[in-house]
Amino acid sequence: MRSNPVGKLGPPRLTAGPLFCLPDAEPDEEHAAVVAALRKLIDEDKFPLSPRLRPLKSALAKLDPPKPKVPPKPPIAGASEAAIRRRKRPKR
Question: Is the pLDDT of residue 59 over 80?
Fold first, then answer.
């Protein structure tokens, strides 16, 4: 009888981990290509809320974080909220 070349434990199992690792000194062109490919996959998917897109969206968020939102302007000093609402109401 022939012995199992893999051994008693069977074939090696793949562990959950990243599909690819991006080095810190990656050229901008390659980074932009990966980001563009991820955006295309996500945008052209038939089911945008499907669970299979979650890892792609998280990878895209890590590679190309969204730009911070501009904070709203501070309220006018000395004006009460009622006065501001009166100015915004259409005149009859």
Answer: yes
